[in-house]
Structure formats: C-alpha cells, structure tokens
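Dear support,

I submitted the protein below through the web form. The confirmation email said the job was done, but the results page showed an empty box. After a refresh the structure appeared. I'm attaching both so you can tell me whether what I see now is the final result or a partial one.
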Amino acid sequence: MKQKLLLSLLVLCYVFTASGCGSGQNSSSLDYAESSSNNSDAESAEGISDESSGGTAGAGEPAADENNTDPGNAPDSAPKINTDMLVYTCNLSIDTLNFDQSVQTFHNILTNAGGFVQNENYSDGQTSTSYYIEDSQKNKLYTATVRVPHDKYSDFLNGADQLGDVRSKSSNVQNVGQEYTDLNTSLSIYEAKEKRYIKMLSTITDDNQAIKIEKELTELQVKIATIKTRMNQIQTDVDYSTIEIRIHEVEKYEEQKAPEKTDTFFQRLGKTVKDTWKYFLVFLETMLFFVIRVAPYMILILAIVFVIFQIQKKRNAGWKPFPKEQPEENIEDETAEDTAADDKD
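What the results page shows now:
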C-alpha cells in the first residue's frame, strides 16, 4: 500500500513538473513571436514613412531630409582651392616691324593698367662696334620685367597682340595660400611667445637669467621679422603679377628673285679683261700713293747715307799706311838696279 502511494506521488510530481516546463516554453515562444511581430510592424511603419516623405533612397540608404540645414549632418565635400592667394607669372616674346611704336604702345598699355617697370634693357645688336650705325643696320631688342595688378593681368595679356607678332607665350599660376597660412600661424605663436618673454624679462632680477632671456627674445624677434618680410613679399606677388616681355625688331621676309641668266663666253672674257685692267690701274694707283707716302722718308735716308759715305771717303783719303818691310833679296836687287841706272846716266 505504501509502495503504491509513493509511486502515485512520484507520478504526480512528474506531471506537475512537465506542465510547468511546457508553460515556460509556451511563454517564451509567445514573447519571441510578439517581439518579431513588433519589429515587423516597426519596419513596415518606417518604410511607409520613407515612402510618404517622397524619398527615393535605395535599399539600405537613409532618405535625405530636405529641411535639414545642419552642416554637421551634411556629407563631407571635396576641399576647395583658395583662389585668394594665387601668384601669376608670364613670359612673352614678340616680333615687330616697327620697334619704336611697339615699345611706346607697350608703355601706354602698362600705364593704363596701373603697372610699373621693375627692370628693363635695350640693345641695338651692334654694341660691340665703335662706328656710327644707321637705324636700318640695327637689330633692336627690348626686354623688361613689369608688375601688373592681378585684376588687370588678363586684360594686359589680351592687349599684347597690339605690339606685334606674339611668337611665344608661357604663363604659370602658383598657389601660396598654404604657405601664407602657415606663416601666419607661426607668427601668432612667436608673437605670443614674445609677449611672455617681455613680461618675464620685466620681473627677473638675476642678471644671468635676464641675459639669457634677452638673447632668446632677440632670436625670436629676428624670426618674427623674417616671417613678416616673407608675408609681405607673398602679398606683393599676389597683388601684382609678374610679366617678362621681349620685343625684337625683325625685317619683312621677301621672296628671292629669279636667278639671272648665265653670261656667254665672250661676255665673261670681256668682263674678265675689264676687271683685270681695272685692278691693274688700282694697283698702279696704290703703288703711286705708296711712293708718295714714303718719298720723304726715302729722301731723308738717302741723304744720311750720302753724308756717311762722304765722311768715310775723306777719312780714307787722308790716311797713309806705313810701307811693308821687304825681304833683303828684294832690297839688294833694287840697289843693283839703282846703281845700273846711275852708270847709264
């Protein structure tokens, strides 16, 4: 009996335990189903909201809000180039038939543009000679470096056609905005540091420390001056564009004439004889002029030679050399001859 009662209790416990687990599983299933249903409803509502707002965003992309003007929510755009700090330079080479007029026109255009000449040079192409050169023989050249306000840069280049034939033109643009910004930042840092040094210097009582601070302050002020000089140079280059111009005088090209006909044999012979006689007369003329030019010198030289010859002649006439010693045999012969001559007498 007790065994049956114990067995019945075990069966009842098992039934209650199984029923509890089943209710737990059913509750979890219901919760999961409810959560899934809520998520589905939320997604459906979001999709309906997107469609009702008129958005055309694709799958996985949020719809754009036309009324959203917050720059922080705007997408990142490409960096823009700072066109406020651009340096323009240009090289021009121009050929002209009327040099003086082209140079004058160039100066007029430069004056009207508000520019100025930084340096210039003029050459006639014959500077090595020491003789007077006619304008027709000169090969004139004018070179200059000018500065033009940046807002007149394009107008000035467009007016270059008035000066002559533009043979070459090269321009360049340099953006110095980043360099100018870096210099400005460094300048702010150095100036703030300069103020701290000056304030520090006014409170220091130690001479050695004061000398050290003064040295560092001097170096800092030199850096500040260098930065300001470079910034002023950049600002000048930005405000006034640089143009290097070259104006060269040329001659107008003329077609070569048709070659002349060849002379006949007798024509060439007659021309040769004529030229030979002409050159011979020129030779005689040259020799005559040569004799005339050297005649005074020749007369002087002949006179000097004549005087020397006469002096030498007089010296030779007054000089009597001693007789040479004769051998004894010759003396005896001469004595015998003299005796014979006396006997005859």
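Response: this is the final, complete result; the empty box was a page-load delay. Residues 1-7, 13-75 have pLDDT under 50 and may be disordered.
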